[in-house]
Amino acid sequence: MQAIKIGLWTSFAIILMQCLGLLVVYDFFTFDAYATVIAIVFLLIGYFLVPGVKRKDHSFENPILNLTGREFSVFQMLAQGKSNKEIANTMMVEVSTIKTHTNNLYAKIGCKNRIDARNLWMKINP
Fold this sequence. Notes:
By secondary structure, this protein is mostly helical. About 70% of the residues lie in helices and about 0% in strands.
């Protein structure tokens, strides 16, 4: 419903600006000044119509839902106790790629090392 409201106000503002441009603005202002006024009007419309951005509380959310497919595969193999080289051979990629996936994985799930990641895996998948 909010998106429809914003869309209607935006279309109304566009129509109003076009009418003002045809009737008044081109006789008194340059195009640069007119474009600046339009930008300011749309900025104000966005500021007043769009409610404040609320951050989601991720404390109860499953951290695995934020992982890509490759990160999930790496996570699963880390939990099995495989080394980076073994994971790289299994996935047919370079060890540096696995290190990148591992670092991204640690950041997303909030772990510092393999032991933390394995413990988290065991909590989620008993």
